[in-house]
TrEMBL record:
The lineage of its organism: Bacteria, Pseudomonadati, Bacteroidota, Cytophagia, Cytophagales. Its main location: membrane. Residues 11-284 form the HTTM-like domain. It comes from Hymenobacter guriensis. It is found in: Endomembrane system. This is HTTM domain-containing protein. It comes from the Bacteria. It is a multi-pass membrane protein. Keywords: Membrane, Transmembrane, Transmembrane helix. The chain crosses the membrane at residues 76-96, 156-180, 223-239, 246-271. SMART domains: HTTM. Coiled coil: none annotated. InterPro entries: HTTM-like, Sporulation_signal_mat. The keyword Cytoplasm does not apply.
């Protein structure tokens, strides 16, 4: 903790209402993630899909990991785990049995991510860590069903080792992202965003509009790099902390909103926008509560239960004297928890530093078991160290008994090797985009026959579809070249399969 000197403030002091908003947003994102994943429950999580259990254990499994979802390859069992995860996420959102609900939601999220690591992206690591640190934060103290059974807090101001960990975790995300981008295209040439927007697999409409403006892209590249590198320092300034935090949140909201409009990144931007809500200063939260009061009152007037609930949402005088002292019986437990969180934070900082090529004191392999088991392992290498140059699109080329060639990736239309108007539109969601990205790597060649056979089986399930005697997974590879040069696409057959 910082000493109480005139004009200095503790940069790790957070508002209980902000933590509650962080909890609500995290629960909502987990529910959204489950809803999207559930549309591919058979394809991504059962033995009839693209990653049967025996393939997962043979090629993708870390012996320190665990997954309840690997208890069975049946659709019904996966649906049961999804339903339980959704209930836990709703409980987190509403703040019902918050600590237990957070633990269960975190456990089931780890289990889900471990079941199919081929569709996991960087935002999933952050979502997992939000729930992990939420285990130690009092984010159910207000704006929750639990708070109805508790006295009003004497102060919304809260400081603990967990608030330090939360703030440091946010800083690590952006610092490590920037430090891993150690190629000239990020910090010297300024061509990284040009190459990112050259990837038709993730190009969105705003990105297409920005793409022709080379000087603008160079400026945006350098702005992105130095924003990620320098912005986190604002979180540790011990003066005018409310103003700096508001600037931090505002810049990141604009930053991630811009990413979502230019690049197809799935829930990545929503997870990052949710993650910074715990930094909102008291002045903003008081104004928000004042704006919501009349609207809530109109709803609360309908029933006595709702009127009682509103009493727990009333703004109170924000104290700057520190958090309420714990009772004597709980003080040792809180100290023990703070010590445990401090040790965890040191471990996680070490893990993050270990991912940087500039760091010399590498983590020994025997020490990593904890990170794998509790999934506090993390790497923030988005477009790092450089942007991929291999671009292209998939053609699922099926050949009928009469020799007709159909593209299963475009609802069975006749095969065309011309680039689609929108390559992004070929993906059902970002999970499939991530899967096909991993599908390209030679080290993941074991994936290829399972995807090919899955597509073939799904096609033949519809009696209206003509039978196929062969299916080829074709990748039209198009290398991104500098200075708006256009490469000629080359046809690569990644896999071929036939009905058994």
């Amino acid at each position: 903790m910082l000493p109480k000197l005139p004009g200095l403030q503790n940069p790790f002091a957070l508002d209980l209402r902000a933590l509650a908003l962080l909890r609500i947003a995290t629960g909502a994102v987990v529910l959204t993630d489950l809803a999207i994943r559930s549309t591919d429950l058979e394809a991504h999580y059962t033995n009839l899909g693209v990653l049967p259990l025996h393939v997962l254990f043979q090629f993708c499994w870390n012996p320190y990991e665990f997954s309840l979802h690997t208890s069975s390859g049946l659709w019904a069992v996966q649906a049961m785990w999804f339903g339980l995860a959704a209930l836990a996420a709703v409980a987190v959102l509403l703040g019902y049995k918050t600590r237990w609900a957070t633990a269960l939601s975190w456990l089931l999220l780890i289990s889900l991510q471990n079941r199919n690591p081929l569709i996991v992206q960087g935002g999933d690591d952050l979502l997992r860590m939000l729930l992990f640190w939420g285990l130690f934060l009092p984010w159910g103290r207000v704006y929750s069903l639990d708070s109805h059974r508790q006295p009003l807090p004497s102060s919304y101001r809260y400081i603990s080792a967990a608030t330090v960990a939360y703030v440091v975790q946010l800083a690590l995300v952006y610092w490590c992202t920037a430090l891993l981008k150690n190629s000239p295209e990020w910090n010297h040439d300024g061509t990284a965003i040009y190459y990112a927007l050259s990837l038709d697999q993730i190009l969105m409409p705003l990105g297409r509009w920005l793409y022709p403006h080379a000087e603008l892209l160079r400026g945006l590249t350098l702005l992105t790099y130095y924003t990620e590198l320098l912005l986190p320092f604002l979180l540790f300034l011990p003066f005018r902390t409310a103003w700096w935090r508001l600037l931090f949140v505002g810049v990141l909201y604009a930053f991630h909103l811009g990413i979502s409009l230019t690049l197809f990144v799935g829930l990545f931007y929503l997870i990052n926008m949710a993650s910074v809500l715990g930094l909102l200063p008291p002045s903003v939260l008081s104004r928000l509560a004042h704006w919501l009061r009349p609207r809530w009152t109109r709803l609360a007037a309908r029933t006595h239960a709702w009127r009682s609930a509103w009493a727990r949402w009333q703004p109170i005088q924000v104290s700057v004297q520190g958090r309420t002292a714990p009772t004597g019986s709980r003080r040792p437990l809180r100290h023990l928890r703070d010590v445990a969180v401090s040790v965890l934070l040191v471990y996680i900082c070490w893990w993050n530093l270990d991912t940087l090529p500039q760091f010399r004191w590498k983590m020994a392999e025997p020490v990593r078991w904890f990170g794998y088991l509790f999934r506090v392992d993390q790497r923030w290498g988005m477009f790092a160290p450089a942007v991929f140059k291999d671009d292209g699109w998939f053609i699922m080329e099926g050949t009928t008994a009469t020799g007709q060639r159909l593209d299963l990736n475009r609802s069975g239309r006749p095969v065309s090797y011309a680039k689609p108007a929108s390559v992004v539109a070929l993906f059902k969601n970002d999970r499939w985009r991530k899967y096909t990205e991993n599908y390209l790597f030679v080290t993941n060649s074991y994936m290829r026959p399972y995807y090919c056979n899955y597509l073939l089986r799904i096609w033949h399930q519809n009696p209206a579809h003509p039978p196929l005697r062969q299916l080829e997974v074709v990748y039209m590879k198009e290398i991104s070249l500098p200075d708006y040069q256009v490469a000629r696409p080359t046809r690569e057959v990644l896999c071929s399969c036939a009905p058994k």
